[in-house]
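Hi V.,

You were right to ask for the full record rather than a summary. Here it is.
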Amino acid sequence: MSVAKDKLFIDGAWIDSQEKKTIEIKSPIDGAKLGSAQIATSEDVNKAVEAASSAADKWGRTHFVERAEIMHKAADIFEKRFEELVNLLIMEQGKPKADAQIESQGCVNYFRDAAEDIKRLQTDMLPSIDPKKRVYTIRQPYGVFGVITPWNFPFDIPCFIIAPVLASGNTLVFKPAEQTPLCGAKIVECLEKAGFPKGVVNLVQGPGEITGEAMSANGEINAIAFTGSIETGRRIAERAGKTIKHLLLELGGNGPVIVLDDADLELATEAIALSCYMNAGQVCNAGERILVTKQMNDRLTKSLLQKTAQIKLGDPRLPETTMGPLIDETVASKIDSHIKDAVEKGAKLTVGGKRATGFPTKLYFEPTILNDVSPDMLISREETFGPVCPLIECENIEEAAQIANQTDYGLMSSVFTKDLAKGIKLAELIKTGTVAINTPSNYWEGRLPWGGMRKSGLGRQGGIQSIISMTQLKTIILDLG
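Predicted structure:
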């Protein structure tokens, strides 16, 4: 397997960092060393920003058709290197092959979509109270765009953001998660081959407290898109606020899934299992809280037990595996603590609840069902990010909505009912950026508006909405004399 370069990519060249300190990358599958990544210091970040700033005016003025051609070239390269992407994703993130194939295809799709979206960007001609005036609007790039992405979808999320950033005429300083830097470097390798002009694409690696902090504080970065935790998002916002940066923040979720008395049991079970166990539960719009009516609770639990028994935990390189390992010990320990807290406070451990044995690492976690969960437990209030299905019993639709909104998060939720009126009522009551009715809480289409309410983030992305969020509106007034 070809491993991505371990250097930084700045101003069109792969270079060493100032201090040449590295992060060692081990596979969560078996602990094998995959490679290393050099940590970018604040000086390295400044150098990358200088390169991006120098290239910004020319790239921003490059005609959108020419930009779109390069975007399509990038998509072609992702397509040609598809198997290479899939294999690296499996080894570095621990994703089963079928899921890794879907995610890797996203690299191709996002660049093709952004190439076409920029061609369809429309602005307004506005009426003026002065008959001699003509008023119209245009959209222009912000300039240097910093992009900081997480480890759970190390191809999908970066490409979802980077493609419209570049198509919109911004230049890029990209910091992938320190847990999956090889995937980040692989993206930049492909973009280098596509022929983006020197300085348009720049890669810096390293932990958030070093490299991410330097990006947030740099006054020449005009905008930052970040996906990750509320805590990190708050730190970025605080530092970015001092230089008045434009921010796009997606800060995770604690997504409620509501199952009413009249729900289609089979449909709800399939959706909940997918939303709780996909990517070992390491998904921002996972089913983190299952709110089920008393009448439906026993039936749903029994059905979920049958579905959970079908999960094949194991080596993600094997075709029969449906759930692989967690990314690292930090994530695994948090799941341990959430389950321990829930059981101590009265939750019933119905199945799973511990690390699986007989695997090369301690990162394989049993798919878990918890019953009698209450809103005061950590697993209800925080983002667990693991293969856990916590069931909270509720009396009726009003209590379900009340419990659903007892959280700082507001990313995505779902409702299962055969009564469309009830579904719409709940969709309007729940304070999340997206509500899915009779659809899994982790349903995803990259072209739909995406973002959170409350502390789950700022701004919206997806399809043409990304282009809008990554450009500034300018009004031009013309006097005809």
